[in-house]
Write a structure and sequence with these properties.
With 198 residues, the protein is an all-alpha fold. Helices cover 76% and strands 0% of the residues. It has nine helices and no strands.
């Protein structure tokens, strides 16, 4: 049974994620969030003891939603190439659903040279994501969908870099062809992994 305190915390995190999408993790303060959520600062401190604690909570909730929206549904797809495609397509949908941009991509730029617990959690999440992609590629090789010469870690890195780059460039240029361009790039990677010559 969900308690009133848990309900309040979940509602506050909804506001916090929206703010972080607009302003980045560093831009979310207890004061701004209190205004957005219609709460007092002291009330928020009861849930999040510091700005760092708040940032970690935002990141954890975002990562939990990522797993629920991207990873778990993709793992229900057939083994091999369909699963690799699902992970890529669902990542694009998840990132684009945030009106101000993907919090994780933004945070990677914000925190790459700022040591601390938030950066540590972000780094661990990125390593998990690359491992998930590499495992899906490895299974695609086992299923005979991809050639034996394909290095799973390398292809996983290229897929992640393509998706992250697409997110940043498409938001900056507002290119209406951006989604088509990134999918053509992904399809080219998949054809190469299959060993197709076209």
């Amino acid at each position: 049974m969900v308690t009133k305190g848990e309900e309040t915390r979940a509602a506050v995190l909804d506001h916090a994620i929206a703010l972080a999408s607009e302003l980045g993790l560093e831009g979310v303060t207890i004061g701004l969030l209190a205004d957005r959520a219609g709460m007092s600062k002291s009330g928020l401190f009861a849930h999040f003891k510091s700005k760092e604690s708040l940032q970690l909570a935002i990141l954890e909730e975002t990562l939990s939603r990522f797993v629920q929206s991207v990873v778990l549904p993709s793992l229900k797809k057939p083994r091999g190439e369909p699963r690799v495609r699902a992970l890529f397509e669902r990542w694009l949908d998840f990132a684009c659903a945030m009106p101000g941009g993907c919090i994780v991509v933004q945070a990677m730029a914000e925190l790459d040279d700022r040591p601390g617990p938030v950066r540590d959690r972000l780094e661990a999440a990125q390593r998990d994501w690359l491992d998930t992609l590499a495992t899906a590629v490895r299974i695609a090789k086992e299923e005979g969908h991809f050639e034996a010469r394909i290095a799973p870690e390398q292809l996983a890195y290229e897929i992640a870099a393509l998706a992250h780059g697409h997110h940043l460039i498409s938001r900056m240029l507002r290119d209406t062809e951006a989604d088509a361009r990134v999918r053509r790039g992904f399809d080219r990677m998949i054809r190469h992994a299959r060993g197709s010559s076209d």
